[in-house]
Specification:
22% helix; alpha+beta; single chain; five-stranded antiparallel β-sheet; Glutamine Phosphoribosylpyrophosphate, subunit 1, domain 1; 39% strand
């Protein structure tokens, strides 16, 4: 499981994700003479990457849902997708559409989702696009930062294990995203994930979210990680 959060404000888009890699498996046992199935969940690592940059097209991708496919991290397939399926000049929408098609075709029985974000140069300037994608729950990418008339709106979306975040976000007391500075958007995304991690330390349930938090910032001027775990030697 994962937790990824995308906050979109006037100055830019913030994409953040945790680093926990988990595995669920089933074991058949006998309770007396009656067979039963026991499901186990284990933490494999706290060093997984869930926020990636498609540098060729200037698009950010955050992954949630299945974190391992055919014994490899899902990000490995995102890298392969970029290398084989993405061309320069693609829009955020075409990248999102191709990404859904790629995973549905390659792994039709796997449930995996994405936030796909970036800017596109249009007549009125650089326009932000924030898409929610899921291989089994959405037929097409769903744009979250515009209303039915196409007017830009600001806010937050979260995906993965959101049961703690859903308690933190009160629809009646949301931040004023239309006036939120970019630094506050960074802090807010980190707050939602770090509070989830700390809460799961004490709640009697499987700690599905954990590890360092990676944070990607996208603006009309470009994109960069403001927080990113690096390879190191202790």
């Amino acid at each position: 499981m994962s937790l990824v959060v995308t906050v979109f404000v006037p100055e830019g888009i913030v994409m953040a994700g945790d680093s926990r890699l988990t595995l669920a498996y089933q074991e058949r046992k006998k309770d007396g003479e009656k067979p039963m199935t026991v499901e186990h969940q284990v933490v494999l690592s706290d060093n997984a990457y869930k926020v990636e940059v498609l540098e060729r097209v200037g698009v950010g991708v955050a992954t949630f849902g299945a974190s391992i496919i055919d014994n490899m991290p899902v990000t490995r397939y995102v890298w392969r997708f970029e290398r084989t399926e993405v061309s320069q000049g693609e829009t955020v929408l075409t990248v999102a559409q191709k990404l859904m098609h790629y995973f549905r075709t390659q792994f039709p029985d796997v449930e995996v989702g994405f936030h796909v974000c970036g800017y596109r140069r249009e007549e009125e300037g650089s326009v932000p696009y924030v898409y929610f994608c899921h291989t089994t729950k959405e037929a097409e990418p769903k744009r979250w930062n515009a209303d039915e008339q196409g007017e830009i709106k600001f806010g937050v979306i979260r995906s993965g294990d959101t049961h703690v975040v859903d308690r933190l976000i009160d629809p009646k007391s949301l931040p004023v995203f239309s006036a939120m500075p970019l630094q506050d958007a960074i802090d807010y995304a980190i707050y939602l994930i770090s509070t989830t991690i700390e809460t799961l330390r004490f709640e009697p349930k499987f700690p599905s979210v954990g590890g360092p938090i990676d944070v990607l910032v996208i603006t009309p001027r470009g994109m960069r990680f403001v927080q990113r775990k690096e390879l190191h030697v202790d």
